[in-house]
Sequence to fold (245 residues):
Amino acid sequence: MAHREANKNPAYKRVLIKLSGEALMGEKPYGISPELLSQVAAQIGRARARGVEIGMVVGGGNIFRGVSGAAHGMERAVADQMGMLATVMNALALQDAFHRQDIPARVLSAIEVGRMAEPFIRGRALSHLNKKRIVIFAAGTGNPFFTTDTAATLRALEIGADILFKATRVDGVYDKDPYKHKDAKLYQSLNCSEILEKELRVMDAAAISLARDSHLPIMVFNMLKGNNIEKAVDGEKIGTLIIPD
Fold:
C-alpha cells in the first residue's frame, strides 16, 4: 500500500461512493458482516488519507427493500419508508466502523432521526467534506418511490463529486444476470443512453437519466475484490465505466 501512496496520485479530488446494502452482508444471508465493514472502512480510510474527499450513500437491501415489501402486498410508500430506516441503520454501522479506526465520519439523514444523525443540509455536507470528514448520506432522498441509486446520483451532484462509484457484489455491468447465466458478457464501458435502450439493470432509469443530463460519470465495480475501491480512486480500469452521452 505504501507503493501506491508514494507513486500514484488519486485521479479524483472528490467522489461519491454508493455502497450496495447487499454487499455489506459478505457471506451472510442477511444483515451486516462486521469483518467486511471493517475492511471497507479501512480501504476508504486509506483513500481519504491520500487527500480524496469522500461522500457515501448506502443502500438498505441487506435489511429491507421497499420494492420487495410492496411486492408482498405492503403499500409501496410505507415499504419505502421502512427501507429508508434500513439505510440509516447501515449508515450508523458504517460510521461506527470508521470511528473504530479513528477515521472522522458523519451521518447526514434525509429524514429526521433525532439524536442518531444530523439532518441533511447541503452546506453542512460541504463543510464536513472540506474538513476532510467522510460524509455518509442516509435515508435516500427522504421520499418514497425513489431508490438509493437516484439518491446517490443526486448527492454526487449536490456535493460536486468528480465521479460516482457504485460498489457492488458483481464485477460491473453485464448484458444479463451473471448469477443465472454463465455466458453473461461484462461491458468495459457504456454510455447512459445504451443502458436505457438495453434496459440494463445496473441503476434505475431516473438515476441514469440524471447522470446523463448532468454529465456525471459512473464506475461500477466489485467492492469485495482486493483493493478495488482504492484502484477506482486511482482511476484504474476496473469494472464498467458509464459515461454521459
The CA atoms of residues 17 and 165 lie 5 Å apart. The chain is about 40% helix and 15% strand. The chain has a mean pLDDT of 92. Strands lie at 14-19, 53-58, 105-109, 118-119, 134-138, 163-168, 189-191, 218-222, 240-243.
